[in-house]
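Try this one yourself first.
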């Protein structure tokens, strides 16, 4: 059975923008789209003798249905289903995200009908879901995924912007590279694989030589990690980028003109707890393009 692309819906513009991005991604992957809404209020049917108790829920359900109608009209080749689940937003999204090919969320939102992204819900979900989670900003458009035209104007007919992924070859990153290469292949977009390094602590007289050695070693490690994926995706144009600095600073800068940024999140045991990590946190706060957070060992 195919895993769907799942998008969370609330009353915010951000979630509607995320729904459009999710629809396009589902088409690229040839997967169905499921639009999910969490509901924490009264769960009685909308046609009870006390409709005032269920007015907000009925409104939320109508928004869910209207969104599905709009998506089917905009993307007629796409299979769209809807689901309203009673429960807290974080619990619902974590539940459906576990069964999704990827989960798409608006990166920030105001509270409203069903307001599942109010507060820190998005960060909680990212920290608990082991499937890829994509965060989409409210002002994103289809043209933002593509390069400007010859006159520098937004276009939906030009090639896709680069996909950027940050990796650390010292740790397993197969899931991360797999998602990044597949995303680039689906878009026929170039892929920039970014690895950062930090200068060694050595005597001042040996600094220059040590820095060159560390930079060269980082480049070799990156090439070795990427080589098998180049063979699996021979049609993807790959650029290996090695930069000095912290990943939380280098990656946002490298993705300023990207169409998608892919970052990793280490899966931690229940004893340690879950967290998004400094790189994911920096990316979701400083990058304008959609950010995919991919959990890995």
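Now uncover the answer:
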């Amino acid at each position: 059975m195919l895993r769907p692309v799942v998008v969370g819906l609330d009353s915010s513009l951000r979630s509607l923008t995320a729904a459009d991005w999710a629809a396009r991604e589902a088409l690229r992957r040839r997967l169905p789209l499921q639009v999910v809404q969490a509901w924490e209020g009264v769960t009685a049917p909308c046609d009870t003798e006390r409709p005032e108790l269920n007015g907000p829920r009925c409104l939320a359900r109508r928004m869910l249905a209207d969104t599905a109608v709009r998506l089917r009209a905009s993307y007629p080749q796409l299979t769209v289903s809807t689901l309203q689940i009673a429960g807290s937003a974080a619990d619902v999204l974590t539940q459906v995200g576990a069964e999704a090919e990827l989960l798409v969320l608006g990166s920030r939102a105001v509270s409203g009908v069903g307001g599942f992204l109010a507060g820190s819900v998005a960060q909680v979900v990212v920290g608990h879901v082991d499937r890829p989670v994509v965060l989409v900003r409210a002002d994103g458009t289809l043209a933002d995924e593509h390069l400007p035209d010859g006159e520098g104007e937004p276009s939906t007919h030009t090639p896709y912007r680069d996909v950027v992924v940050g990796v650390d070859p010292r740790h397993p990153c197969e899931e991360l590279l797999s998602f990044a290469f597949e995303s680039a292949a689906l878009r026929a977009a170039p892929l920039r694989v970014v690895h950062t390094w930090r200068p060694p602590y050595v005597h001042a007289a040996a600094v220059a030589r040590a820095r060159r050695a560390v930079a060269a070693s980082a480049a070799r490690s990156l090439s070795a990690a990427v080589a098998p994926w180049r063979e699996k995706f021979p049609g993807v144009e790959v650029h290996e980028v090695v930069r000095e600095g912290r990943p939380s600073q280098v990656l946002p800068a490298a993705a300023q003109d990207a169409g998608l940024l892919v970052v990793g999140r280490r899966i931690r045991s229940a004893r340690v707890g879950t967290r998004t990590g400094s790189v994911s946190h920096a990316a979701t706060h400083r990058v304008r393009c959609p950010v995919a957070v991919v959990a890995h060992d």
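Discussion: The two ends are 25 Å apart (CA to CA). The chain has a mean pLDDT of 85.
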